[in-house]
User: Fold these one by one.
Assistant:
Number 1:
Amino acid sequence: MNTKKILENIEPREAVRSFVFPVKKTRQGKDKSELDDARKKLRSTMSDKDRLIAELLQFKFQLEDYINSDAYDPKKTFGKFLLNYLSVIGKKSSEFAKDINVHKTEISHIINGSRSPNDRFIVRLELHSNSSIPAEHWRKLSQKYEVYQLKNNRSLRASEKRKIKSKIPVRL
Amino acid sequence: MKIQHCSTGTEIDVIVEPVTAEDPGKLTRKRYFFDWKKAFNGTTLYKLRIKDHEDIKGVMALVDYPDEMRIQIEILAVSAENVILKKDKGKKQKEYENIAGNLIAWAGRQAIKKYGAVACVSLKPKTLLKKHYMTAYGMSDGGTQVFPEGPNLIKLITDHNL
């Protein structure tokens, strides 16, 4: 059944619940300027609250897709995501430290990776975001780093190997 | 993201993900209405399936316009058993509801993820369907296109539990 036939045989209300039909290319310039104008008009009515929600969603989706992917990216550390969160909410780390009642050095240690975030810190992050970014997301992010480190720590394996006196007789 | 099983009313978890190399053979004209092999040119195809099941319930082709911070839905179709034609009215019940809504919301998620507060997802409707897309998905009139942006895009995404 081609598009014309489908359109003849379907109620409009049902059609939009089932399809976006392919449309022949038209003059791109006219299309673009009409759309640009409508978008500009709409954007000018956006409140600061709407912008913050959109940017928080952007942050959340980037975090979700990273923690749910198999890939490990050494640049996407807990500290980097925390810095992004501060950028979205428009706060300096010292202000944020006051907000969640921790010492500012704890924040800077977590950002530079010299300290791992504990459960207390992660739960405060969730509470600070009004539950917009769940604690599980932050925990999965730090676990992703820890698992990568564990898998790739050759010196630890070498040193611990010497301490194993006996092994099981099979290997999977 | 959830779709509703029409005969029982049960809500079922679904996943949207890229079409894989094995999928194009499954995307027949008979079940998915369009020539999806042709749609591959310059677009990225995504499919909607029920969690832990392989069967494709809906498919769409997206094109990203980074200069405009916009993602365009070029084509979308739900599988044949989820479409009610005029001749089926009163005789057939669709299997699942809200497949297209979830796919459109997911395109919006991709746009927000990439472009944040200035993100936009758009589609070029057939003229007679324009107002119906605007009503069904909270879209605005952009001339030859309709689009949700800003609060309407946020609402579309959050209404679909994304």
Number 2:
Amino acid sequence: MRSPLEAQLDSDPAVQLCVFRVGYERYALDLRRVEEILRTPRFTRVPEAPSFIEGVIHFRGSVVPMVDLRKRFGLPVGPPAIKSRCMICRLGRERVAIQVDGPTEVLTVRISELHPPPTPGPAAGGASPYVVGVCGAGEELKFLLDLKALFLSRAADEVGDSW
Amino acid sequence: MAAFADILKQFFYAPDEDIGELFKLPAQAGQMTVFQPEESAAEYLAFVLEQESYAVPIAQIREIVRAVPLTEIPRSPKNLLGVIKIRGEILPVYDVKVKLKLRERAPIVVGLEGEAEELPGSARILIVRDLEGDIGILVDRVLEVIRLRPSEIEPLAPGIGGGDYLLGLGHLGKDLFIVLDVHKALS
Amino acid sequence: MTSSPKGLSDFVAEATEILDALNRDLSILDQRRGEPLDPGLVNGIFRSSHSLKGLAAMFGEQRIAQLAHHTEDLLDRLRLGRLDLTDPVVDALLESFDAFQVVLRETERQEHSPDATQRAQAVCRKLAQFSETAAAPPRDDALDRLDLDASVRGVLTEYEEHRLLENLREGLAIWKVRAVFDLANFDQGLGRLNSKLKSMGEILSTLPSADPGDGTGIAFDIIFGSRTAAEKLKSALAGISASLHPLLLSPEREAAAPGGAATLAVAPLPSRARPGSSVSPPRPAVESRLATRKDPPAEAESSERLLTQTVRVDIGRLDSLMDAVGELLLIKANVARLADQASQSGKPAFGKLWGRELHRESRLLERKLDDLQKGILEVRMVPLGQVFDKLARTVRRIARESGKEVDFVMHGGEVEVDKLIVEALSDPLMHLVRNAVDHGVEGPEERRLLGKKPRGQVSVRATQRGNQVVIEVSDDGRGLDEDRIREVAVRTGIVAAEHAAELSERELQNLIFLPGFSTASRVSEVSGRGVGLDVVKTNVSRLSGLIDTQSERNQGASFTITLPETLAIVRALVVSVSGRVYAVPLNAVSEITSIAESDVKTVEKREVIGLRGKTIPLARLARVFQLPEKARMRHFMLVVGLAHRRLGIAVDELLGQQDVVVKPLGGRLRHTVGVAGATDLGDRKPVLVLDPGAIIEEVVNPERRPELV
């Protein structure tokens, strides 16, 4: 019994990605997840929340947790740059927010252009828990992110290094 | 392929997807402290194109020169107005008005009488730093250096014209400046 | 002994520079007797000796080479902690410096006295005494306990390991600083970072990072030892795109961890990969580190351009330039005086005498400017050896990567050429050399089967022929595969099948310069981005040069580039077309004549004109450049090109002849077709200089014709 996704995969339809930068790399999310993109708004720190949660922002009446992807990926953090964006995303029925560098763009690709992430070697320390696939190559390489993983504390062994 | 298809499922959005144990947030503000991300103002050079005010981060500007006569390059892209010589260096000078949709066609500023447009006396060429070699941008008038904080720059939602060369709208008092990424405006 | 006087002065200049540095360091060492060893200082002296040794060996200066060798030996022991810096050692070093001085001064005078030789030898013996082997200190396993990636540990030199151990022994904390810089100016960024770090501790090793991040950036991992607190280090690094990670030292199994080097538990484990790093598997990362370890980390191969915009200049040349300028100032004063006279009202200023004076100043001016020009040109001349050295490194790297054994032979590195040309040649030569290793030279097995020596040879040879320079890149590999060339040519429609068989060997071989022509079945990573030889040819023609190829099946292939010695000054014909002024290099023009509109005929929709009984194609420059045309009865025609690739270029006016300085159009303008560069004709607007070769190519359109040059 084939899943709808497998059936979809066979017919290779097009999907839309929202692509953005964090540090030097480009990442992508399913465009349908992206509800809104803002400049970094004021946010409220929440002491009891896990450390990878920067805080919460108020958006359309709901309280939305925010993760700073630069921090999450172990990059040096500074004041928000002119190009920083805060993306309000859908996760199931909830909303979450991620802070990214660089402006966003929309890309249409075919499912067949999405590939599993390459297996890293031992020196790389194991697969990234956040990346489920890649698209494109070379300078156009985009990492497909697992939004849920970014917000789960299980995956949150501090990514303090960037060997 | 099937295994990847499973993983890929997580990537795509479904309203009923399982999001597991996301932390629970306290409903009340209580002991929460509001945090305003610190921001510092950056300097921009403001200039005018067709009566509209624009701003470019000052670090990108190497110098400003008068609009000296240009030498045209045959069969060059329309937005390349010509070249000038600055202290022995040959630099290309570009028009950005077409890309910014201020004009239909790039002006012709070189040529014989009658062929070329006359430039306003206030016209200047901004020399911009670029990895491929510095370039010049022709502008109608240079205003001044302004300071803008990120919070004073209103972002433009993607999809609103401007692609990624418009970085936002800067508000300074009652004035509005269109903040520009010069390099993107040349492609 | 060094052969040419020029080579000698180069050697002396460089050797003197090194000796100056050596002198400074030795003085400091002398002053600091009794104080603890400064590793930076010792290392500096070591490096100076090492450079001097290499330099002397290259120039055949045996005495200096030997002396340097012994000094280097001694210093190596010092820096590895195998020898203590006692007074006798310092004295010996000072003596060796004196000996260097004596021998060098002699060499400069081209003398070779037995006294100096003996002195040098005595010092060598003294230095050798200290090299009696001391027992190597027991290897501490502290390095094993340090949380250092095995691949990094593998590439550390003995010296670096020694310093790392010393740091650990002294109780310093070890950090890894990961920094990413822009490719365009990483040396500045790295320099700044280094100064900051040096003020807070010791830089133990700088390694190119296994995780390169973005394609346009270059990342380094710096192993760094310091006593400074983490917070201070972090704040010092703020503003630089660098991240700081502690390297933990696990406690020894027997005792509880002493203070100092062991910073435990609190810091996060440096184990997870960044999402980005999962792309590149580690093995090539280690290899590339090993490969690049020999070269300084500054080796960014993504552009083969020489990174420096500077030229080393002989002071003598600068002095004569200053003289010329001085004389120009005098002339200027005279001209100003004459101008003053002319502007005084009431006087009949423009008398004959005045006129003659002005004329004389003008002639003097011309002569002096000429001198100045020549002087500056000489300053810009740079030996081709600069590029050849880079080629040698590329050959070694590519040979290693593709498993071939290749010897690289260079000749004529001393031939000097304008710096602009040397820079512009870098890419084409790199490309040719890559091709030679990648496609030309066969692997060792194949060569054995063919009865060739297992080691292939790629050679670069430069010779001066009058005011031209000829550079030949050749290999003893497979040679060009003519059958494949034919096949590809027919397949891509460049040549009709029936004509393919008739093509001469030379015509066939020169097909490879056409755009899009690549006989490689796949673009190997090694050969680059599939950039064809047409780019090489284009680059060479931009330099007003020619490229030719010759090949023998299974024997090898050679590419010959012929260039003018200098690009900078060109005698040009100044013409105007549709009101625009252009300069045409005279060496490309074989004739200038006047033609009438009525003389122009059409053959197969192309314009042609009769020239002394032959019919040649005609190109109206206004049309080629898409400029507005005004109807004219007559034109001037410049005939360019040779034999059956001649072309007449029609222009409106001839404005004169002039020596011009051509500046190539770089950066975004480099793809302009038909224009070789721009120049200054006096008014401030730059004037474009034509590229007649490109115009011929464009107009005469070789693809359509079955016959080729």
Number 3:
Amino acid sequence: MAGIGFTLKKLFYKDTFTDRFRAYAFSSMVAAGPWLSAVLVVNLLLLVAEHFIIAPADRYLFMSTIVYGFIFSQLLTAPWQFVISRYISDRLFQKEYDYIQSSFMGLVKIVFTLALVLVVAFYFGTPLPIYYVFMSASLFLILSLVWILMVYMSAAKDYQAIARAFVWGGLVSVALSMVLLAQPIDFPQHLYASNLLLAYVAGLFVTFLLLIRTFFAVFAFSNQLEFDFVRYLNKVGSLFFTGLLYTAAIWIDTILVWNSEHGRIIYDTYRFALLYDHAKFLAFLTIIPTSVLFLVYVETEFYDSFKKYFQAVRSKSTFAEIVAARKSMVQIIYRHIVYLLERQVLTTFTIIVLANPLFVSLGFSVLLVDVFRITALAALCSAIMLVVLLMLLYFEARLEALLVSAVFFVANAVLTATFMPLGSAYLGLGLFLSALMALLLAIWLLAVYLKRLEYTTFTGQPYFAQPEKGLFISLADHLNARN
Amino acid sequence: MEVALILEGSYPYTTGGLSSWTQQLMEHLPDKRFKIVSIMPGRATLPSVKYRMPKNVVEVHTLFLEDYMLLSPHKRGRSVRLTQDEQKAVENFLAFDILTDWELAITTLSNVNKIGTSVEFLKSEYFWEYLLDRYQQDYAAKDFNRHFWSLISMYVPLLTLIQQEGPRADVYHSLSTGYAGLMGLVYKFRYGKPLILTEHGIYAREREEEIINASWVADDFKTIWIRYFYAMSTGVYKSADMVASLFNRNRDIQIELGSPSAKTVVIPNGVQVESYAERTNWDNRTNIGAILRVVHIKDVKTLIRAFKIVNSELPDTKLFIIGSGDEDLEYYLECKQLVDLLLLNGKVEFTGQVDIQTYLPLLDLLVLTSLSEGQPLVMLEGMAAGLPFVATDVGSCSELLLGQGDDSIGPAGIIVPPVSPEETAQAITVLLQDQAMRSEMGKNARLRVEKYYNQGQFIESYRQAYDRLGK
């Protein structure tokens, strides 16, 4: 008789292990690099503005506009950044380059639409003059686009082009601000705030143009499937929320402080907490070392050990050899996390100690120092946490990464709400404690995960090929089919 | 009384000896209600139903080996908690150990609530630890990646299958070991009902041959696959309440493979001799017939080559290849090409699926060149119609043609070795040229079937078995 069991000829033995190197490194760049350069520029602008006698209200207005632009463009785009970076790296791996430019066009359409809706809703009924609103809205939109472009540019690994774009944009902003403060355009209201904002937006626009020029040069080909990436919301949907929650966690304390007795409202439009906002922005400047070092490290030593492990998994190695490769990789990971931590601790503590004289010499208020110190510690924790989080993502521990972000967010909200009423001396404590807590959790999860990495490497694979299913996959197929 | 017949890759979707046998059994036991459990490869490739089912068939329940595709392959493993006894049974089962406690292993592994779906179980840490232990013990120097995926691809369909639901019945009757036998065990243990096993061939042996010839499996995995099929067979041999075979040689093998001899019984196939016209005229000597599915195991190519030799000596001869060719289309086309190549166009006819009873009177001689056989029903039919045979020495062919024990009827054909076109051709030529021999053997054929391979006996044996076990 004919047995069916064996003639099936279906061996699931296959080669789908993740030897491709997911380009998550972007996130540290996106979350830190350009935003740091932007903070620098804004502070420079404020220093420039010091030389002119500007009404405090105008300065607060300008600061708030920038702060809002930053925070909300990050919140809007961060979820997509994680998802799209995964999509890009998969397409790059499969050498389907035409999908990349198209996905950018599709994502820009989605983000631009969302941003417009938010802008209209937010500025509806504001007493601010129309030209100011227009510039603020432009700031928000351009920033959102810049964040997204950054993901694509870091996937292309063209860090020089990124740096160049930000340097030129920054220079334009600073130069233009000097010109405009000396010879201001005659805006009827908020003269200096409007001129400063104009200078900043103009510089940012230059950055955007430079970035997009490089983008189209690198990803020259396109197809009609602009919304194909939407399927990744099903495939790796947790990345969306990991990005959202991590970013929201970084800012939820700020938003709570704005809405407390420490916050004020200006022109019925922006809330702000002068001391807290300024201190926190400065504090996040201190994590430059981690961002840069991590990027270098991911591209070099980590990549090599990561590749060796997956090569061992795929290429006829015995289990003992796989374990050996894992152990040497894990050692390298730990060594580097410790190394990053050392460098960052050294930097942060040096700045904390020197904060008093430093702030005085830079002309910042001494009142900032205490809040700066605690938020610098928080920045330290959140930067290392991001590194560990990205490690988790490299190993496809997506649920663990999501958990870390969620804990960070909830803890920051709860702790900030708890400590805030105790007085301004406690500002930033919630952020610091929650970041520390989430960092410890992330390290613990990573350690547990790496310990049984072989288990997850093998059993984490889908056991057989199956057509993908899900709302967003159908949506993507539907949109693709339209073309 | 309800009887569930469990088949693999067979009735009602493919034709062949086992399917005809099934149809015959059900038609002649009209007072029993039958449920068919048909195990097939996949939904997408399911052939159409090939039989008009008798009225007493109340349900056809089709199980698919590829139904694991309905599960999510991404599920995370779940925690599996087993008692020590359960662990031992499960681990023996997974190691394809013939000393497995089959009842405990199958009850545990087929219980979704206990161990999760097959995917969840195979992703559990428990299973991972077990797999690692086994690997370290026996395969530590081997490619782990391949080892892992090879085992997963064996276990996924297996565990998914045994977790499937099945129909309720008073008696379960598996018509082979392998997956059909395994499902018989699942139902027996799950519902506490008796299980009968009837084997037409020896499943594990057939798989073993297939595996040895398969080029896509590495040698060390051939050993594992062979163990797998033998172990699955042993489970049924040991646990079934009755183990039937068609002839003595197979019964001996069943005992050798673990069946307690007290449970074994030989129930030969049978045909209704009266429904075949008795042949009186033996003059014609041109039409050679072969009733078979055109598949590799029937070795149709040897048949065609033998016919080439016969035809060059007796140019007016024709060969009728009677039976379906769509089961293995590639092989079917190769056979047609061979006919072209040997310039036998017009002399070899592929009739496709036809009613055999109407064809038999046209034929003068039947040939069977199979590489492996049980007790071919078509042979009994041909013999009942008084046709002499040339057949290979496989399965019970020689028993059928030459008789055994105290049978004094005399030969009903000529036995030749498998894959021997020349010997086959020689036997065919001898028979075609000797009219006296043809008529003598034809008469013997009918006599032997009448006496030893009678449908009445066959049906009665199963009626009694059902009544005895299923009350």
